Amino acid sequence: MATAVIPRLYKNFIGGEWVEARGGRALENRNPANAEELVGLFPESSAEDVRRAVEAAQNAYRTWRLVPAPKRGEILYRAAEILVARKEALARDMTREMGKVLAETRGDVQEAIDMTYYMAGEGRRLFGQTTPSELANKFAMSVRVPVGVAGLITPWNFPMAIPAWKMMPALVCGNTVVIKPAEDTPLSTYHLVQILNEAGLPAGVVNVVNGYGPEAGAPLVNHPGVGLVSFTGSTEVGRLVSQVCAPSFKKCALEMGGKNIILVMEDANLDLAVEGAIWGAFGTAGQRCTAASRIGVHKKVYGEFTEKLTERVRLLRVGDGLDPDTEMGPCISREQLERVMKYVEIGRDEGAKLAAGGKRLEGGAHGKGWFHEPTVFTDCAAGMRICQEEIFGPVVSVIPFDNGDEGLEIANGVSYGLSASLYTRNVNQAFRAMRDLETGIVYVNAPTIGAETHLPFGGTKQTGNGHREAAIAALDFYSEWKTLYIDYSDRLQRAQIDTAPFGSVES
Ligand code: NAD
């Protein structure tokens, strides 16, 4: 007789202990390549669980902020070493919960490793400034100080990289953390936090509250004990987060949607551009914030490029990401698959030409998952909804253009501004595009995807609110500047009175 497999019941992590949600309810984490496989059950938390986590983080902050930054960095360094040792197992678990192929989940874990090492090193830098004072016998400097409790809210498409991108700079700066991971991919955050715990992070410094956005995310954003919020997700929810933070002037970083473009100029290496388009558009099944969902092509090479692209797309192998032959995995959920199918309908209705794909994949190896064919629309007009709205799935729209200026106009003619790429061998054209593309990231002769942890990452317009992840830019968000003046003259210095910007000593 077959024995039933009991799904593993995971817990929240609060004050250094694994605890159930107060309400006792659980949410299901399922494999999108095989929805019958339950990866685990995770707490469905409420405002009460969030309150306890924030309290634990507030208590831990009293001592964590005083731990010397190099010591904080050493704990991160140990965590990075554990991540390296477990990379393969972590990647496999991530593919089970998120669906993207193993090569990509290895890359996701690697991003977490890179960020953890990078921020560990920052523990010995966290540079401020010293600068000459206007006065004799006076010393002036600025130092970074932590903000307090960081409330972190993350999406499902980079289940370990994005939590690490937020947690590591927050921690090295001396903040404590409460994180609410995406309900679709909580396992990777569980692993990451367990590793930080093993590396020696004191109790309460990182806390995890699992659950849905409105029930667990919203109370975290709203909690007066949370000093800053970093959110990555849709523009729609980002707007809500921003509105909740505004009345209390809570520091708030938003990384949101995208509608990224690859521009193929008349002199481009077309084979290179086709390869870039394939991975830019269909890597992670198009579910990357940096995914290329538009391709603008110069009319002189339009026919040749679209032919090569559609030929290549038809050969893409779609399936379970754990299978080494698979090139593209499933959509994350039934809802996301339905969203993709809806946009394919919209594209057809708008008069775009369906050149490849267009259908859900069902039956056989695809029967139990949320698979969709990689889909190409050609002969699109820049104003169509499929060329303006974020689809977040394996659908790309190809738009012809007459000259470089028109290409740039099409590229900039959307409400988002995350990444853009240009394929050309003309150096003048490349430099003009780097200057004029209104995105936070520009690639030349490479697709719109990919990031290095020591460079700033983020977008303009409705993609972001001006902050950047990664690099020194992240430290600027997770710390505040404190300016220090030390007068060692033992007397009131005359120039101090003359130049006092806010009134003389008499006032
Ligand atoms: P989402 O906005 O639905 O959810 C993101 C997170 O917010 C989840 O943890 C969710 O539970 C939480 N949430 C939902 N409602 C909330 C509320 N009212 N208050 C607080 N939290 C709430 O996004 P998603 O579907 O998880 O991710 C896909 C989106 O993320 C896409 O739009 C994509 O472009 C974007 N994204 C952007 C970047 C970037 O760096 N710009 C990176 C990855 C993903």
Rounded mean pLDDT score: 96
Helix content: 25-40%
Q: What would the principal axes of the Cα set say about the shape? A: globular
Poorly predicted segments:
none
Number of strands: 23
Sheet with most strands: strand arrangement: 14-17-18-13-12-20-21
- The proportion of strand residues reads 15-25%
Largest sheet: 7 strands, mixed
Bound molecules: nicotinamide-adenine-dinucleotide
Radius of gyration: 25 Å
Number of helices: 15
Tell me the distance between the termini. Answer: 88 Å
Structural class: alpha/beta
Give the topology:
Blueprint lengths: L11 E3 L2 E3 L6 E6 L2 E10 L3 H18 L4 H17 L1 H12 L3 H21 L6 E4 L5 E9 L2 E5 L7 H12 L3 E5 L5 H13 L7 E3 L4 H10 L5 E5 L2 H11 L5 E5 L4 E5 L5 H13 L9 E7 H16 L19 H17 L2 E4 L3 E2 L9 E2 L2 E4 L16 E7 L2 H9 L3 E2 L1 E5 L3 H10 L4 E4 L15 E2 L9 H8 E9 L6 H5 L9
Helix pairs in contact: 1-7, 2-4, 2-6, 3-4, 3-6, 4-5, 9-10
The structure holds nicotinamide-adenine-dinucleotide (NAD).
Nicotinamide-adenine-dinucleotide (NAD) binds next to helix 7 and helix 8.
